[in-house]
Amino acid sequence: MSKRTPEPTNPPRERAFLVGVEVYQSKNLLTLEDSLAELTLLADTAGLDVCGETTQKLDRPNAETFIGSGKVEEIKALAEETLAQVVLFDSELSPRHQRELERLLAPVRVLDRTALILDIFAQHARTAEGILQVQLAQYEYFLPRLTGQWTHLARQAGGRAGGVGLRGPGETQLEIDRREIRQKIAHLKQELEKVRAHRMRYRAQRKRNKIPTVALVGYTNAGKSTLLNRITKADVYAANQLFATLDPTTRRVELPGGYGMLLTDTVGFIQKLPTTLVAAFRATLEEISEADLLLHVVDISHPNAMAQFQSVQKTLEEIGATHIPAITALNKVDRLADPQQAAEIATQFPHSIALSATKGIGLPELLTLMRQELYETYVPINLWLPYQQGQLISLIHESGQVERIEHGRGGVQIQGRVPGRLVAQLREFEKSKPSAVPEEEEIVDDTVDF
């Protein structure tokens, strides 16, 4: 009796046809070809098989279909020829563009880059916090894209229903769907505010314990989780795919000389990162903006390493984290054909060190450099601190070098130097200095020598 081969239980992968568009004077860090290659990796991560691609260069997007009408007909024919089930655009489509394209390309589905990334995030979210953040981003993305597919249904509370003054056309199913989604968005935002408050309490506790925090940032698949595992001997999930991990993970690290720090892994960045994701992941991204030091991991073996570095820097600027001291970790040096290239490439990146998270190359030097940045590198300060910030005033005395202090009405003016890890906590007080001190106010001038 012959044995039957078991049937696969996984659903078959859908076929996707890619469309890349380059708009004149658009400020993309990657070329059209490189961006499509990245979209191919995203599609594979989401579970799609790419069966073809096409590109178009435009002076400006078409008002109705984003691309030209002739290109739409070409894509429809190519999708039928390649048996594609999905047409995937490498740009974010407006609700109007998406509706028109879906109508013209039916029955093939139309997705844009943002929807694809949201789908990947939904697949990889594991914790309750991650799921909440992804759901919020999805609802905010799909709300303006709801179509009138339910308008054939009778209007609610219409005709003779209701009392005096309440009769009328009522609501369509579409309006009901929109209201329900808005209610869900409001509920998710409330839940995420609780998460945000919870994280703020943890960060405050860490600061009270005087344990500096280092945030791992970088382009997706640069090797952040692998580096965290190597340094801390943790077991955080790491895979050679885009957005393998979404949820932040924090581990304690012992530095040379008996010093300690907390290392936090964060979500990877990508060019054209959807704004809905940046907003939804605010609680997570605050782990970056509140860190004492950033460890920016770059895949040095990637042909677009500099463009990926600049993309991350752009996102850091959007979330207000560029003022935090940073070290650039040039990862995957073991993949270079000539290891001597590492020194030459390192000159292109600020404050960098070459290493390999998988091979352990350069890790002792990295730990030493982080200790120097956190505990030995001092930054000049000139702050106005209200007396209510007594804890910060004490922290500056304990950890820094106070060169001049003036007690005035409502607060103190402090000049001196503090470890770089304290810059993030003190930055807001640079802008709080009063424009002038009243002449009748008594000033006490103390000079503190260390």
Brief descriptors of the model:
3 domains, four-stranded parallel beta sheet, alpha/beta, 450 residues, Rossmann fold
Summed up, what is this model?
This protein has 450 residues and is an alpha/beta fold.
Describe the structure.
The protein has three domains: 106 residues, Rossmann fold (3-Layer(aba) Sandwich); 167 residues, P-loop containing nucleotide triphosphate hydrolases (Rossmann fold, 3-Layer(aba) Sandwich), CATH 3.40.50.300; 69 residues, no CATH class. The protein is an alpha/beta fold. The termini are far apart. The strands form three sheets. The chain has a six-stranded mixed sheet, sandwiched between helices. Strands 2-1-3-4 form a four-stranded parallel sheet, with helices on both faces. Helix 4 runs antiparallel to helix 5. It has 14 helices and 14 strands. Strand 3, helix 3 and strand 4 form a beta-alpha-beta unit.
